[in-house]
Design brief:
Layout lengths: L8 E8 L10 H8 L21 E6 L2 E7 L1 H5 L1 H13 L2 E5 L8
Antiparallel strand pairs: 1-3, 1-4, 2-3
Length: about 100
């Protein structure tokens, strides 16, 4: 039997590489709101309430606003994945690739 691996994720933290808190304070919710349309195929779309994509979700880890970016978005829509990565790069945000559970540094 083949073991199913957990999808890899990237954490984009709301802090720049120089240690400054990224502004505006709702940046994570805004970014995830823009990406909310990207969802798994076959999922319910009718009468759906506003919600975030399972591939791009805001959260807070160790008091730092963070976006969790699931690598499966790259397969679903490569340009959307590159948009999120470009946002992180252009704003010099700290990113952590496939962090261990509970670890953000």
């Amino acid at each position: 039997m083949a073991e199913t691996a957990e999808p890899k994720v990237l954490l984009i933290q709301g802090v720049t590489r120089s240690g400054r808190t990224f502004r505006p304070s709702d940046w994570a919710e805004r970014l995830c709101g823009v990406m909310s349309q990207f969802r798994p195929a076959g999922g319910p779309r009718q009468n759906m309430h506003l919600g975030y994509s399972p591939y791009v979700r805001p959260t807070i880890i160790n008091d730092i606003k963070t976006v969790v970016l699931d690598e499966r978005l790259r397969l679903l829509e490569p340009r959307a994945y590159e948009f999120v990565m470009g946002f992180a790069h252009d704003n010099d945000l700290v990113t952590l690739e496939n962090p261990a559970p509970g670890r953000t540094d």
